[in-house]
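User: I'm new to structure prediction. If I give you an amino acid sequence, what do you actually give back? Let's try with this one:
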Amino acid sequence: MRAILNNIRRILFDDGRDDRDFTEQEQRLQEVLAHLHSATNSVKKGAELLADLIKARG
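Assistant: Good question. You get back a string of structure tokens that encode the predicted 3D arrangement of the chain. For your 58 residues, that looks like this:
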């Protein structure tokens, strides 16, 4: 019961002190995501090229 009251108190009276800043992690995540998209596009292009080569031989 005490834990529930403490959580309600935290929700109602939280003023943002001691909040963590995840800006740096978010920026790194966005950079990794862009790299992942680039790598995925490279794999896709390679697969399409390979499929075209296989079709040309067949």
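You can read the tokens as a compact description of the fold. Here is one thing that stands out. The chain has a mean pLDDT of 93.
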